[in-house]
Amino acid sequence: MKNYLSRVDKRILNVIRNIGRAADRQGLRAYIVGGIVRDIILGRKNLDIDIVTEGPAIPFAQSVAKATGAKVMVYPQFGTATLQWPFGLRLDLVAARQETYPHPGALPQVRPGTLKDDLFRRDFTINAMAICLNHDRWGQLVDEFGGLSDLREKKIRVLHERSFSDDPTRILRCVRFEQRLRFHIEPWTLGLLKQALREEVIPAINGGDKRGVDNVKPPRYFTEFKKMLAEEQPQRHLTRLKALGALRIVDDALKTDFHLLKQIQQRLSQAPEDIACNRWLISLMAITGTMSGAKLRSFLRKFPFRKEESESILQAARSEHVLRKLSAPKLSRSQAYGILKPLHQDTVVYLRFRVSQKKVVQRVDQYLRHDAGTRIDIDGEDLKRLGVSPGKKIGTILQKVLFMKIDGRVKNREQQLAAAAALAAK
Ligand code: ATP
């Protein structure tokens, strides 16, 4: 029988071998499951490893942590644990479980189950395979639902006909895997997806929830939508969602043509490595920029954005005047700093990729790479010693000295003190 673990990166292999040994010692079965199995077979990199145990996961995780020196976090309320290794590997452990949905879109009821139950609760056949880590079946694939042949035939297929109505976030996941892997949604699944959309399985998010209080909540759609926006070519995912009439799962107001998003993605793909970028947020800025103020505000209220995220999205939507100022024929570095400093870093990065004008790109890069982090070597105490009385004037002088430093007109502390003294005397 084929050993699928022969394809795994050495460091990961070492870790999962230890997990297999610990499972043997404790007399339970341990498997890697889900997306990681799909990616091992496809030869795609993935550092998110899910382990399912047939037997309690928490004491098992603790014993693995002890044997391998990993950091362990346990979540007794969910019966899950996370192990983390310094080289960036993270591993989630959970005992095999069975899930049932009391009504469409409800939170599932969870009971202990077998590995097969656990695979059956998953979204698509390609994500519902496991590989055994115990010595006697090391590397053996568990494929109860035809995941391997779907993977070979590039098909996205749900496991049962209630899948999308049980959990409508799977509609977003379905499109995401289809577009990311360049697979296709096989006809039965596509029919079920369209039927779920027709049957309005998404009441909790866009208006009244008539069926109960525990339906899928906006944060779960949002988590999936963010993953989509962080993909390499999110415009392809969104175009597909739009064609399926499924964009409204997130928000009706998103119906733009995604042209700007595509341009930004092209520029991002050639981005210098030192410009750190929050991909999902930049993508979101590109598609919310044309929304009316009221629609954008209601969109921002609907999902659990952090304060700085919504602020930066609003700033991006109102950035035309910033770009106009940045494209002035003459602009000193300190002037560019003055324009960009009030904005959140993510907004500035967005603007960097939003524009094509070379001059503006250079100015923004200069800011991001050098000027944004510039500090001066004098402070308010120095100014008081120079005789400046406490108050607004101190801040004004310090800012002028900072601008002079950015423009290269003062360098060391001595020059800065001299400049401050001259400004104070004015
Ligand atoms: P990615 O490569 O984007 O991380 P993934 O498949 O690893 O994809 P996760 O969201 O980390 O995605 O989920 C891990 C696994 O959990 C999936 O492969 C799937 O088996 C299962 N899963 C995740 N979300 C759902 C869902 N909504 N319904 C059913 N199963 C799910």
The CATH homologous superfamily of the largest domain: Beta Polymerase, domain 2
- Which class of secondary structure composition applies to the elements? alpha+beta
Helix content: 40-55%
Q: List the bound ligands.
A: adenosine-5'-triphosphate
Radius of gyration: 27 Å
Give the strand order of the largest sheet, numbering strands 1, 2, ... along the chain. Answer: 3-4-5-2-1-8-9
Question: What are the defining features of this structure?
Answer:
Hydrophobic Seed Protein; binds adenosine-5'-triphosphate; seven-stranded mixed β-sheet; 21 helices; 4 domains; globular; 50% helix; two-stranded antiparallel ribbon; 11% strand; Beta Polymerase, domain 2; 426 residues; Methane Monooxygenase Hydroxylase, Chain G, domain 1
Give an overview of the whole structure.
With 426 residues, the protein is an alpha+beta fold. The chain folds into 4 domains: 1-153, Beta Polymerase, domain 2 (2-Layer Sandwich); 154-250, Hydrophobic Seed Protein, CATH 1.10.110.30; 257-373, Up-down Bundle (Methane Monooxygenase Hydroxylase, Chain G, domain 1); 380-425, no CATH class. 50% of the residues lie in helices and 11% in strands. The protein is built from 21 helices and 11 strands. The chain has helices at residues 10-26, 35-42, 57-68, 115-120, 147-152, 163-166, 169-181, 187-198, 218-229, 234-243, 259-269, 279-288, 293-302, 307-317, 320-326, 333-340, 345-354, 358-369, 380-385, 392-406, 413-425; strands spanning 29-33, 48-54, 71-75, 80-84, 90-95, 97-100, 109-112, 130-132, 141-142, 155-156, 184-185. The strands form 3 sheets. Strands 3-4-5-2-1-8-9 form a 7-stranded mixed sheet. It has a two-stranded antiparallel sheet with strand order 6-7. The chain starts with 9 loop residues before the first helix and ends with a helix. The relative contact order is 0.06. The structure holds adenosine-5'-triphosphate (ATP).
